[in-house]
Amino acid sequence: MDSSYGGCTTHALYYLFKKLLERDYLERALDYPYLVRLNPSIPSKTRGNGAVALNIEIRDSVSIECVASDVAAALRDYITEVRGNTSRACVALALDEVGSRFRELYFKALTDFVHLDYIAKLVSESRDKLVLPLGFSEGCIGALAAIGWDRSRCTYELLIYRDVARAQTIERVVDTDTLAELDRHLEYRTFCNYDYEEERAISIPRGPDPVLLGIRGLDPVKLIDSVKNLKIGEAIGGWLLFKTNQASGAHLAPRASTELKPFRTGCLTGVVIDITTRPGGDVLLEITDGYGSMRAAVFKETGLTRYIRNLVLGDVVRVCGSTKLWDDLKHVLHVELVEVIDLVENYVKNNPKCPKCSARMKSAGRGKGFKCVKCGFKSRNLHLEATIKPREVGVGLYLPGCRSAKHLSIPAPLSKAELENCGVRPSSTADFYF
Questions:
Q1: How far is CA 305 from CA 196, 202, 427, in A?
Q2: How many other C-beta atoms lie within 10 A of the C-beta of residue 314?
Q3: Is-above-0.70 flag for pTM?
Q4: What is the C-alpha to C-alpha distance for residues 371 and 123, in angstroms, rounded to an integer?
Q5: Do the Cβ atoms of 204 and 121 come closer than 8 Å?
Q6: 8 A C-beta contact, residue 139 and residue 90
Q7: What is the pLDDT at residue 434?
Q8: In angstroms, what CA-CA distances link 50 with 78, 237, 261?
Q9: CA distance 285 to 47
Q10: Phi first, then psi: what are they for 266, rounded to 5°?
Q11: CB atoms within 10 A of CB 217
């Protein structure tokens, strides 16, 4: 649904949801709408590689054929209006609880490349539980994966949409000072809406699309309440609150080096066997895990290189991210997260101190021992002193800053414990839209 003429996948769902309400098709909403981000390393992905879904109960008096027909018509109208590409769009109506095959598809679409033949087989096997009103297309990968999202970890995002008349303008009239203060109100449990180092609003898009801003948080009710602190200077076309896998790190599955093929995501644990700082400040690691070795690139923009530069050969680390092909046709893990598991003792060898005056001695020449330049003492029996050099990096987890964190990456303000509260459901449909 993405389009340079004002289209957006989440806005298409908002449009469709309003149509369903207008036709009085809904008995109740079973959960918040879903915004599901998928594998960020797929070359043919849309801008944010996102899919959306509604978990709803249709009234007994409404036939699924009627719903399917109206959904197809509404989305064709939307795509035509924003000059989008109808050939890739897909809508999937699951008529019952989905099975494990859809869960497997979600994980595969999140972490790997999914071939259309895989989807065709799944559709064929689920013929009695699935309706595709717009037909079969590449977009069905995301649509079916969104249905299979397991919701084991989640955050929330409140997307505020613009008035239709301003959807194609770039400038948003939002007071960024009030937005900068939002994450400092800890009671609202919002995060990564403003970059305090760059003094830039992260939650305000910079392109011509219908999203005015998207506020991220951990509590759906408090997230809606937090908007009262913002000063918005343009008309609002509506809003919708999504439950999402954003900022959850759900795509970072443990893998062996031999499993991290191009376009896969995952985590590699192993020993550092080479470190190279490249021009510009990026750091290239080579890591072996016993099955093989692999290169891992840590980019300066992530903010992680300040720690990674202090690693030495022999350190044990876990690096997580997306695998991509470089110009030399070798695959490299683009790192989003680093965990330092174990550090080797880094020894420094120094000349011995003079036994008489304690000054640091110098070499007297090859095979001649040491001499003291201060008092003149000489000795062939003294040896270099080995001392442990303090490390400037410690054991622990290192996460990217908000401005460089990708949609799925866990940003520095969050921890896994904060991502477990996914059981919150709306008390009514009116709780998550306007």
A1: 19, 22, 45
A2: 13
A3: yes
A4: 82
A5: no
A6: yes
A7: 79
A8: 18, 22, 22
A9: 29
A10: 160, -175
A11: 24
- Six-digit token pair at 135? 């037909």
Distance CA 321, CA 334 (A): 5
Cα gap 336→265, rounded to integer Å: 10
- Listed residue (414, 107, 405) closest to 266, CA to CA: 107
Q: Per-residue DSSP letters for 262-325?
A: TT-EEEEEEEEEEEEEPTTS-EEEEEE-SS-EEEEEE-GGGT-HHHHTT--TT-EEEEEEEEEE
Strand intervals (E) in 144-207: 155-162, 194-195, 200-201
Query: Residue 345 has which token pair?
Result: 């003792």
What residues have CB less than 8 Å from 226, skipping those under 6 apart? 182, 185, 188, 190, 215, 217
Please write the tens of the pLDDT for every residue from 368-427: 999 999 999 999 989 888 888 888 899 999 999 898 899 999 998 886 667 766 777 887
Residues of the chain where predicted confidence (pLDDT) is lower than 70: 1-6, 415-417, 420-421
Residue type, 418: E
CA gap 195, 365 in Å, rounded:
57
d(CA 53, CA 240): 12
What are the structural domains, with CATH classification, of the chain? Answer: 1-150 (3.30.70.2200), 152-251+411-434 (3.90.600.20), 257-344+393-407 (2.40.50.1010), 347-388 (no CATH)
The residue with tokens 């494990």 is 100
Bridge partners, residue 334, by sequence:
297, 322
Structure tokens at 322: 């997306």
Parallel, antiparallel, or unpaired: how do β-strands 26-29 and 347-350 relate?
A: unpaired
Could you give the residue ranges of the DSSP H alpha helices within 27-139? 64-81, 100-111, 116-125
